[in-house]
Amino acid sequence: MLNTYIIGASGYTGAELAKMVYTHPHLNLAGLYVSANSLDANKPLSELHGQLKGIVDLPLTPLVDPAAVAAQADIVLLATAHEVSHDLATMFLSKGCQVFDLSGAFRVKGDDFYSQYYGFEHQHQQWLEKAVYGLAEWNSQAIEQAQLIAVPGCYPTASQLALKPLLKSGLIDKNQWPVINAVSGVSGAGRKASMVNSFCEVSLQAYGVFGHRHQPEIATHLDCDVIFTPHLGNFKRGILATITAKLAPGADAEKVAAAMQKAYQSQAGQHAVRLLGEQTASIQNVVNTCFCDIGWKVQGQHIILTSAIDNLLKGASSQAMQCINIRNNYPQLTALV
Amino acid sequence: MLNTYIIGASGYTGAELAKMVYTHPHLNLAGLYVSANSLDANKPLSELHGQLKGIVDLPLTPLVDPAAVAAQADIVLLATAHEVSHDLATMFLSKGCQVFDLSGAFRVKGDDFYSQYYGFEHQHQQWLEKAVYGLAEWNSQAIEQAQLIAVPGCYPTASQLALKPLLKSGLIDKNQWPVINAVSGVSGAGRKASMVNSFCEVSLQAYGVFGHRHQPEIATHLDCDVIFTPHLGNFKRGILATITAKLAPGADAEKVAAAMQKAYQSQAGQHAVRLLGEQTASIQNVVNTCFCDIGWKVQGQHIILTSAIDNLLKGASSQAMQCINIRNNYPQLTALV
Amino acid sequence: MLNTYIIGASGYTGAELAKMVYTHPHLNLAGLYVSANSLDANKPLSELHGQLKGIVDLPLTPLVDPAAVAAQADIVLLATAHEVSHDLATMFLSKGCQVFDLSGAFRVKGDDFYSQYYGFEHQHQQWLEKAVYGLAEWNSQAIEQAQLIAVPGCYPTASQLALKPLLKSGLIDKNQWPVINAVSGVSGAGRKASMVNSFCEVSLQAYGVFGHRHQPEIATHLDCDVIFTPHLGNFKRGILATITAKLAPGADAEKVAAAMQKAYQSQAGQHAVRLLGEQTASIQNVVNTCFCDIGWKVQGQHIILTSAIDNLLKGASSQAMQCINIRNNYPQLTALV
Amino acid sequence: MLNTYIIGASGYTGAELAKMVYTHPHLNLAGLYVSANSLDANKPLSELHGQLKGIVDLPLTPLVDPAAVAAQADIVLLATAHEVSHDLATMFLSKGCQVFDLSGAFRVKGDDFYSQYYGFEHQHQQWLEKAVYGLAEWNSQAIEQAQLIAVPGCYPTASQLALKPLLKSGLIDKNQWPVINAVSGVSGAGRKASMVNSFCEVSLQAYGVFGHRHQPEIATHLDCDVIFTPHLGNFKRGILATITAKLAPGADAEKVAAAMQKAYQSQAGQHAVRLLGEQTASIQNVVNTCFCDIGWKVQGQHIILTSAIDNLLKGASSQAMQCINIRNNYPQLTALV
């Protein structure tokens, strides 16, 4: 049993992680932590997330001595803010822990990225270089060897899993930037009080037009410019991405299908992508599951793909768990189905 | 045209009032005010409530000189917090304005009521004595003469309109307290950021069990003890009250129907109650309308009534407008249908 | 007062029309009709649409003698299925009635269009030629002269109002087809029982990919190929269209803004478009209003526009009413704000 | 491994059952059946319930030879209509199968019950006598010995689990009938197309006032008259019951708490009831769980209880699974947490 700690356990992602670790046959949920000055400190997790009552009643311990945690930990899950992950990760890494970071702090290499898109100067370029991007279906070999895994964001996961097979096979005309329209449930904004997330104010609406930091995360990892427009939807969880792209000369429906099959079909049951063919993906079918559903249709030289995930699971927690499973040689969907 | 001012215009109730006054043929929407230190000060109302763009773009003026407003005002609508209404009303009254207060500050007479249920000592007992309770269908004669009208709360309106005809006719066994279960849309909690109103946290749930201050408002005005259990529902607006009561000896379905008809049917088109007979009231049918729908069914010695209103309209703004109409001899539903 | 009849009045669109005609100062709501074998025949409209109780209680008369209706009618609103409108319209036209058709039966000229996209051969090519497309903000001069107005569909209205000013001014690169992603509330599918519209089955999902008949309606009237992907959203009413396009060489943010201003700003208050500049359109702000909100943002050579309407109002009923107002020289938003 | 068959597997309850049986360590999901003329016959279950894709892709076999199923079955789950269960159960029983019936066909003993409330004459009085009511927390000893378990309805489960401890201890004044107001998610009406369940028509509303057949089920099993008013809520799953009762003379908050503790606390972790004390139950906390949350508050001689379950789980499928676990000596919450 590997001792597993969750730092930043009070939010929606933390609660999902806690439940997964609790049910995992090879992990021991050793402790839940929040920042030392959190208003939720010392409350049982189940007081904040009532559905966990009787299941995970562990308290949210204030994190005053990270080194003491590191000394006990085999695995550390960071469900913390970007800067907090940036500051904490190296200490856990230096003590030999496996670190799975759900923030954006180690997702994209490059000198200027963090100052430009996250508002802080990255201080740990060496670890940034070593970090492996935890897109489970595509980076499993690297994940197996990594000590620091940067779990992708929710929009990037839905977008990349759909586009990557086609780009890899040269089936997309990259001169005409793919258009990614995505709608996220409100839980994507985290567990907090705000006017924007207030029940009466939520209504389908685009935000962050031409300015969301998941755009460069997607474009960098796909090595392809994209136009990405996120929307807030009036539902609690789930993301649907609808992607329109132009096919490269010579590409057709058959080649697209073959690329999808090659990417995902051969390893059926071993990963979390489900191919829908010409059906369209639906949020309802993926919510509360670890899966990414992908459908697509070709007409002439255009393709429309739909890709759906649970933003808190495949877009965060269950993808982190997939990475843990890969890293430690457990079946990839352990504790997930 | 009567000069009409709305104080506390930034909330959901204020926005509804503004639109009604704007469309009213005999009222002039002279000004919108917010407290002097409001973060919304000087913004156009339509910046907060985008549906009003192009209709009511008036700014939210900070209220620094209430006396100057009073000097211009024929009618003042107070959509302010209880204490603010308590403090402001008398100044407007002393200048001869008609004051329609949507807060709880003047709803219930009695020495201890405000210290017990609202947490402040009432300083204006004379005006509290003179205030008329603006339950439009029942107090129109008094409203016609009043200078200060205390518009009832949302739960009390739905509850009283259903029970009052039966109690008036002695058809309810008051020894067995009527049970009022009511569910309100989230807008009832006002326009503000809070965890409780956060989209992801809202879920049907009772609150304020045995402790909501609308219970004594209902009981006092009905002169009948009641058990009142409010619930937060997962919808934006509307209230449904389901009321279970024991009939008095000798009461039956026929007498109940006659009492309902007598109370509401004779003045059809002149007021905002719609009788449904044995059908049940539905929130969908009253949302965005000024109506209270009431259905009921008798079996043996028990009766179940359902009563539905739009909490922001018949439970606040449109009832205030009904009172304005009554007070100034306009047809009662002017600007409302 | 013009005698106005609504054929096909039982649906959501019909109910909205009935209420508007009822409140219109120059129209007389003379009758509501449904097909002769409708299960709703002879019921009061308010039995189907409870919110209209006490407002429009007129019965839904079975339409057995259209000629008798035509003899009385100044204005006929057809809220009927495409084939029914196709079959009925000419009779009313031949009797001199003004006909406002909310179906697709007269929206697009061309020999093959109806056999290809609607599954029937059009039999009234002369009237199809004469029909004026009722996109109110763009065709008012033609509408003033027309006897048959084909009111645009909901998706085409949201899409065209956003794109037309830019295409007119040559600001869009038509070689790279604009991508229109749109999400509609469930009421767009009409008032009927079906698994797809069942409460438990509704979940954000694309449908009709590369195959929806609103695509050719949009492309034909804009004279520009477009990729149009409709989605079903988990809300009752409203449409949000998010449109991504490439600008023509030389086009920039300033020219875009000028084109928008020229199209819509000069006639403020006279039409139903509201410009949001760089803000994004939101469904909540247009639901229950007659407005189309349009926002946009330019970056480099790309533009993203968001356009929101109430699908039952600006996407159907209120646009029909705008056309009636234009045709009869009433202020364009009469009965609408 | 016990061979387990689900008859009537196409609905929401069937899908939940299939997933539970699939994940149960001691059960083998041997087959899924639908009625021979079902439109869903031969489709994979995951075609109807997309979230099960890749998990339960078994086909829905048309049930043409029940005896052949019985010959293979250790356990039969009937998620069928009342009459179908009534007709099928005895055949499976005669072959020695354990039968867990989720319909109402064997829930209440007594000659007239089925003709009065279900519209058919019960033909299997002997099995009706032998059937054990599967309220897991209360009847475990009888369930251990039973061959036919009648799993309680959703409203009765939420209501009885809250009231039973108090009635057992004589703490309720039975002369004043407890008032049960309950709101159910739309999935309670089953997977089917209907106007009532149509997305645009659903709105919080009472139904079946004084006439729902769960009232006699509750009253009989509690041996106490109750007033039960069900409501349809605008959410997919979950039930919240708010119960108001008068305490018996001498009863007080302390005795109530003791009765609750005695009933549920002593067997913590062994059953599916969670006590909330003075907190109120919330649908969000129980949806997708097997738990019933119960809160309560006493004031004077009255008590208000709130009780929440997932209608498809503790109100149907997970309670059936609890019964299977009890009957076969597995830990009671196997496959449930």
Automatic annotation (TrEMBL), chains A, B, C, D:
Sequence similarity: Belongs to the NAGSA dehydrogenase family. Type 1 subfamily.
One GO CC term on file: cytoplasm
CDD domains referenced in this protein's UniProt entry, alphabetically: AGPR_1_C, AGPR_1_N
Job of this protein: Catalyzes the NADPH-dependent reduction of N-acetyl-5-glutamyl phosphate to yield N-acetyl-L-glutamate 5-semialdehyde.
Claim: Amino-acid biosynthesis is one of the keywords in the record: yes
Pathway annotation from the record: Amino-acid biosynthesis; L-arginine biosynthesis; N(2)-acetyl-L-ornithine from L-glutamate: step 3/4
GO MF annotation list: N-acetyl-gamma-glutamyl-phosphate reductase activity; NAD binding; NADP+ binding
Keywords: Amino-acid biosynthesis, Arginine biosynthesis, Cytoplasm, NADP, Oxidoreductase
NCBIfam families per UniProt: argC
Gene name in the database record: argC
Any Pfam family: Semialdhyde_dh
Active site: 154
GO biological process, one term: L-arginine biosynthetic process
UniProt domain Semialdehyde dehydrogenase NAD-binding: residue ranges: 3-146
Transmembrane stretches, start-end: none
Top enzyme category: oxidoreductase
Cited SMART domains: Semialdhyde_dh (SM00859)
Known EC number: 1.2.1.38
Record field: catalytic activity: N-acetyl-L-glutamate 5-semialdehyde + phosphate + NADP(+) = N-acetyl-L-glutamyl 5-phosphate + NADPH + H(+)
Predominant subcellular localization, coarse grouping: cytoplasm
Name used for this protein in its record: N-acetyl-gamma-glutamyl-phosphate reductase
Keyword hit for Acetylation: no
Subcellular location: Cytoplasm
